[in-house]
Amino acid sequence: MGGGGQQTESSEPAKGDGVGPDGGRGGSAVYTWEEVQKHCHRSDQWLVIDRKVYNITQWAKRHPGGIRVISHFAGEDATEAFVAFHLEPNFVRKFLKPLLIGELAPTEPSQDQGKNAVLVQDFQALRDRVESEGLLRARPLFFSLYLGHILLLEALALGLLWVWGTSWSLTLLCSLMLATSQAQAGWLQHDYGHLSVCKKSGWNHKLHKFVIGHLKGASANWWNHRHFQHHAKPNVFSKDPDINSLHVFVLGDKQPVEYGIKKLKYMPYHHQHQYFFLVGPPLIVPVFFNIQIFRTMFSQRDWVDLAWAMTFYLRFFCCYYPFFGFFGSVALISFVRFLESHWFVWVTQMSHLPMEMDHERHQDWLTMQLSATCNIEQSTFNDWFSGHLNFQIEHHLFPTMPRHNYHLVAPLVRALCEKHGVPYQVKTLQKGMTDVVRSLKKSGDLWLDAYLHK
């Protein structure tokens, strides 16, 4: 019944993947969780979906969502993540068939790592209800109107300059309008990115390329591979790229103490809640993201995304060069990115940065997502300002759900959390933002205490 035999290496999945311990195929072997959990290394990866055991060692490199997001579940039960990420799980299962090497032994529980089976089953029942009520189906009209208001903002910004000419006040107003359209386009591409997963030839996928490439000058593939990791393991160190602060910040309660004990001081972390305003909101989009996006497109030779991004810059300079010249247009787009960056950082971080951060704890989907996310109160402004990401909990539980249905499923999620004693946090917009600074100060103080006294 063992599963520890070395798998044959090959570039062809039919020969290298899904080979059982005896060298045959057919997935007739049975395994224990202990055996599955041994296969969690880069060169040896198994995972479990619906009690079926798959060897993804070679195929992970060709996973459409990227090698990292699927590798995060190596040696684990990936059933809940598999269902959450794929709009049509039955369509995706055909890719799994060649990778099947067996199943869990009948005596093994369906959940690994001592997860609460009742909670997992109740959440699956909720998901079944959500699907049956059509809450995972998008309304094209909603997204068409949303795209229309983004294009209208851009047209108005350019129209003001054509009609009234350039002045400091008009330039500032146009910059604000462009920053607003960029931020809203960011939320829209986020929608299309989630709705186009595993649909590379669908309209959502094409619209995602258009919005993130032509309207924002960024890369769809870069965003997908980065963002799906965040959803797979939110606030888990080494697995969520959104909390990879590159030693600029220490986050949560554990990382600061670990740095302090090791006497690591890349920055004066006890002042990070102050220098955050200088290096966080102002620089994340115009500097860090832009460098990362273009480096990724060139290193991965992603010429399609690069071509889409170039259409954005070509259109932008064609529109604004007559008014500001080359360097003036560069200054304008830099200022717009600067404004957008503040918007982006506060909206994304107020629901995650103050929450629990830890190393891998192998939690069930509901518990993991709720420990890392909180909601911001609903209002017309909050919905628009955050792109409905004020419903961060519902978005993380159902990443393929269109945003216009979050408010419908929220009461059901809250009831399930109350039943199982899982904290469901809702904050005001002001508290969400101030908690970002408070959490940074708390982490900095923890680092200083450990650095000086341990």
The helix-and-strand class reads: mainly alpha
> What is the tally of beta strands?
7
Amount of helix: 55-70%
Outline the biggest β-sheet.
5 strands, mixed
Approximate shape:
globular
Strand order of the largest sheet: 1-5-4-3-2
- Uncertain segments are 1-25
Determine the mean pLDDT: 90
- What amount of the residues lies in strands? 5-15%
End-to-end C-alpha gap:
47 Å
Total count of helical runs of at least 4 residues: 19
* Rg measurement, Å: 23 Å
SSE sequence, one letter per element: HEHEEEHHHEHHHHHHHHHHEHHHEH
How would you explain this protein's 3D organization?
The chain is mainly alpha-helical and 454 residues long. Among the domains are: 13-114, Flavocytochrome B2, Chain A, domain 1, CATH 3.10.120.10; 141-230 and 275-346, no CATH class. It has helices at residues 13-16, 33-37, 67-71, 79-85, 89-96, 117-132, 140-164, 168-195, 203-214, 220-232, 254-261, 272-279, 284-299, 303-349, 365-372, 380-386, 392-397, 406-420, 429-453; strands spanning 29-31, 40-41, 44-49, 52-55, 100-104, 375-376, 426-427. It has a five-stranded mixed sheet with strand order 1-5-4-3-2. The chain has a two-stranded parallel sheet with strand order 6-7. A hairpin with a 2-residue loop joins strand 2 (40-41) and strand 3 (44-49). Helix 11 (254-261) packs parallel to helix 19. It is globular. Mean pLDDT is 90; it is low at 1-25.
